[in-house]
Design a protein that fits this description.
Shape: elongated
Distance between the termini: 66 Å
Strand content: under 5%
Number of strands: 0
Structural class: mainly alpha
Number of helices: 6
Length: 163
């Protein structure tokens, strides 16, 4: 895995440079630079709007007492998309556009959640989800008192002294 990350760190800028040269030859260098800057500005604006929507949904879920796990994944992928928009290049901007689309974020989030469950729990189902009955009840705490003696020769006064 660390080797893959190293290869990505080295390969992505190289590929971005090659794509930028090709786009620059096709539409002109200045136009390619303007397109890169324009996608960064528009992308960050789009991520900002989507981020506010995700924050609103997360707040609504928390107010209803529901888990905001889906919104956390959406926010995570929006953070990555915003980072990709800020990096100059057409490949990262394309990846950021895909991460900006809500259904794609949902699919990626479900995949990541399933992968995390398999990795940590060793199973695909929730470890706390069991088919057995749930027993609802109440309890009360009592003082720690020794149990009464079963000895028939035991005096009643000794019981009263213990209390």
């Amino acid at each position: 895995m660390p080797l893959l990350i190293l290869v990505l760190i080295l390969a992505v800028p190289y590929l971005e440079f090659l794509v930028f040269l090709e786009v620059g030859e096709a539409i002109g260098g200045l136009n390619a630079l303007i397109a890169t800057l324009l996608t960064a500005v528009l992308g960050v604006y789009l991520i900002r709007l989507e981020g506010f929507e995700v924050m609103r949904r997360m707040h609504d879920n928390l107010q209803r007492g529901e888990s905001p796990v889906e919104e956390i994944f959406h926010g995570f992928f929006l953070l990555i998309a915003g980072f990709f928009f800020l990096l100059p290049g057409f490949i990262t901007d394309t990846a950021a556009v895909f991460l900006s689309i809500s259904p794609i974020r949902t699919l990626l989030g479900r995949y990541l959640l399933r992968h995390v469950k398999l990795r940590f729990y060793g199973q695909q189902t929730d470890p706390f989800d069991h088919p057995g009955p749930t027993i609802d009840g109440e309890y009360r705490e009592e003082k720690d008192t020794p149990p009464p003696s079963l000895d028939p020769w035991h005096k009643k006064e000794d019981d009263e002294e213990r209390k």
